[in-house]
Write a structure and sequence with these properties.
The structure is a single chain. This protein is of the alpha+beta class and 256 residues long. The protein has two domains: 127 residues, Outer membrane lipoprotein wza domain like (Outer membrane lipoprotein wza fold like); 75 residues, 2-Layer Sandwich (wza like fold), CATH 3.30.1950.10. The protein contains five helices and twelve strands. The strands form four sheets. A five-stranded mixed sheet has the order 7-6-10-8-9, covered by helices on one side. A three-stranded antiparallel sheet has the order 2-1-5. Strands 3-4 form a two-stranded antiparallel sheet. The longest helix has 27 residues.
């Protein structure tokens, strides 16, 4: 018998388990991120894109004051009185200047900065939390999203390896290397160690891996599930429901 074939599945299982604890992370990569207290991210520096929602404030013009508009796929917003505005790729401050210029062509507004356009809903920029969490998927980026906030909101499940959470910043250019560092979430929460509580950027990925035992269970399930389905399918072919009197639809088999 070919020994390699005999040990094949076991070998794959062992390799998969070992790989669970081996990550391509580098502690020094955390320098690519900034601490929450080291930068002041404000809405004025936020670049608007579809489908962000903007709110126009101009108390002197009730017709448009407090109106909200969602940025359309074409990058524009539209007001009945003022018409269309190209807003994609601009900051709220730049949009405010454009809208104020249009309003002053139609109305007499005393003073400067009589118009304020604010981002009411941040939806165009996202980061990602994936892996063993209750709420995986993209999250709206606001500019003040930290690793602690992201992981807490995603809620790691019972299979999560909370000591080996990976934070990834994908390469910005082809051929460049991504930045990756590791977080001990348990230490962060229990001991109050916020040394790795850094601000995320748009496109960052937080990966919560499975524990070693969870990884083993997942690999076993990958092997066992197809076999179990095959045997169950063969059983149904040989014993189709209704071929014998007294078939129980409640999983109790046949009765006489």
């Amino acid at each position: 018998m070919n020994r390699a074939k005999t040990l094949g599945p076991a070998g794959w299982l062992i390799c998969s388990t070992l790989l669970t604890g081996c990550y391509n992370s580098h502690p020094e990569d955390i320098q690519a991120w900034v601490k929450p207290y080291e930068t002041n991210v404000t809405a004025e520096r936020y670049v608007v894109q579809p489908p962000d929602e903007l709110e126009l404030r101009c108390a002197q013009v009730p017709e448009v004051n407090m109106q909200r508009q969602r940025v359309r796929p074409d990058g524009k917003i539209s007001f009945e009185v003022l018409g269309d505005f190209e807003v994609a790729g601009k900051t709220p401050e730049e949009i405010s200047a454009d809208v104020e210029k249009r309003i002053k062509e139609l109305y007499t507004l005393p003073g400067e900065h009589a118009v304020d356009v604010r981002v009411a809903t941040f939806t165009s920029h996202v980061y990602y939390v994936v892996g063993q969490v209750t709420r995986p998927g993209p999250r709206n980026y606001t500019g003040r999203d930290s690793t602690l906030t992201a992981i807490s909101e995603a809620q790691p499940n019972t299979m999560a390896w909370q000591k080996r959470i990976q934070v990834v910043r994908p390469a910005a250019q082809e051929g460049a290397q991504p930045f990756i560092f590791e977080i001990n979430y348990k230490k962060m929460v229990i001991d109050g160690d916020t040394s790795k509580d850094v601000l995320l950027q748009e496109g960052d990925i937080v990966y919560v891996p499975p524990t070693v035992l969870a990884a083993i269970a997942m690999v076993l399930e990958e092997f066992i599930s197809p076999v179990a389905r095959a045997f169950y399918g063969a059983y149904l072919v040989q014993n189709p429901p209704g071929t014998s009197t007294g078939y129980s639809p409640y999983g109790g088999g046949y009765y006489r």
